[in-house]
């Protein structure tokens, strides 16, 4: 099996949707990843404009239209879409075969924070507004998307997702991982008890000063503990709270805002 190219996140515009993606990954294994911003959609007000969160007080028609626009941009407009109800847990929903789609689409409504897709032709989308979005891709094109807020990160959702994706002949050392826009360490102030949990689970490098947590560092260490090559972990380095005009930020908005998405889809190989 051909090794994946080294991961890189670059700004692109696909069908009018600004996003971060990795074109070389797509060329290598057919997986299109997309971290969206708040631009390019139809929502208004606090949710302007590409809100993909169905649990906020946005017009459901706008949310549906925004999701369809993203799917069209990544070539998945005819694909079933899995969107879980995120609950800050560590359970991974998995679609191993196409027959699993209907069951998993219902299952994730009860709460899941990672979705693994092993087959082509199925898209997955998770939603974020400061929490860390993580996409891990295997050389075969299998992938998993995970939601890592502080609770999920300290509970090791990153390594759980990486180990879930591993199989014989395709271990974590072969994977690419992509960390999308999230709240940065300088902005992520937490209580002392949270700092203590992160320092205990990882090390002092995840802590800045007395009250700030580096989510990306914690997730990277977690992925390394699962066997991932640190050189294959790409972090876009964008803080959502520092860029509230470009990204939805729960903290910057005072709690009323939309959600950007992390989406992935593997196209069928050409005959």
Overview of the structural elements:
There is one protein chain. This protein is an alpha+beta fold and 271 residues long. The protein is built from eight helices and 14 strands. It has a single domain, classed as 4-Layer Sandwich (CNF1/YfiH-like putative cysteine hydrolases). The protein has a six-stranded mixed beta sheet. The chain has a six-stranded mixed beta sheet with strand order 5-6-9-8-10-13, sandwiched between helices. The longest helix has 14 residues, at 60-73.
Keywords:
single chain; 271 residues; alpha+beta; CNF1/YfiH-like putative cysteine hydrolases; six-stranded mixed sheet; 8 helices
Any chance you could write out the topology, listing elements then pairs?
Blueprint: E1 10-14, E2 17-21, H1 23-29, E3 31-36, H2 60-73, E4 81-82, E5 92-95, H3 101-107, E6 114-117, E7 123-128, E8 132-137, E9 143-148, H4 150-154, H5 157-165, E10 176-179, H6 192-201, E11 207-208, E12 212-213, H7 215-225, E13 233-235, H8 250-253, E14 260-266
Parallel strand pairs: 4-7, 5-6, 10-13
Antiparallel strand pairs: 1-2, 2-3, 3-14, 6-9, 7-14, 8-9, 8-10, 11-12
Entry summary:
The protein is α+β, with helices and mostly antiparallel strands and 271 residues long.
Low-confidence stretches: none
Q: Report the CATH C-level class.
A: Alpha Beta
Order of helices and strands: EEHEHEEHEEEEHHEHEEHEHE
Tell me what the CATH architecture is: 4-Layer Sandwich
Question: Which class of secondary structure composition applies to the elements?
Answer: alpha+beta
Any idea of the CATH topology? CNF1/YfiH-like putative cysteine hydrolases
In which range does the helix fraction lie?
10-25%
How far the N terminus sits from the C terminus, by CA atoms, comes to: 18 Å
Taking all residues together, what is the mean pLDDT? 97
Tally of alpha and pi helices: 8
Count of discrete structural domains: 1
């Amino acid at each position: 099996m051909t090794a994946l190219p080294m991961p890189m996140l670059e700004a692109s515009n696909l069908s009018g949707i600004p996003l971060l993606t990795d074109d070389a990954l797509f060329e290598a294994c057919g997986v299109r990843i997309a971290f969206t911003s708040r631009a390019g959609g139809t929502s208004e007000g606090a949710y302007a404009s590409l809100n993909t969160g169905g649990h906020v007080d946005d017009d459901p028609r706008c949310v549906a239209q925004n999701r369809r626009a993203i799917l069209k941009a990544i070539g998945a407009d005819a694909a079933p879409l899995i969107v879980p109800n995120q609950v800050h847990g560590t359970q991974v929903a998995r679609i191993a075969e196409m027959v699993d789609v209907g069951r998993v689409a219902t299952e994730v409504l009860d709460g899941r924070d990672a979705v693994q897709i092993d087959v082509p032709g199925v898209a997955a989308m998770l939603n974020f507004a400061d929490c860390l979005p993580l996409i891990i891709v295997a050389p075969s094109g299998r992938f998993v998307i995970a939601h890592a807020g502080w609770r999920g990160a300290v509970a090791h959702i990153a390594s759980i997702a990486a180990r879930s994706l591993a199989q014989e002949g395709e271990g974590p050392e072969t994977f690419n991982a992509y960390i999308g826009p999230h709240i940065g360490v300088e902005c992520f102030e937490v209580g002392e008890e949270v700092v203590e949990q992160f320092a205990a689970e990882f090390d002092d490098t995840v802590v800045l000063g007395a009250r700030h947590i580096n989510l990306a560092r914690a997730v990277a260490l977690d992925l390394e503990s699962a066997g991932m090559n640190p050189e294959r972990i790409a972090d876009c380095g964008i803080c959502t709270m520092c860029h509230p005009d470009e990204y939805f930020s729960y903290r910057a908005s005072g709690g009323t805002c939309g959600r950007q998405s992390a989406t992935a889809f593997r196209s069928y190989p050409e005959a």
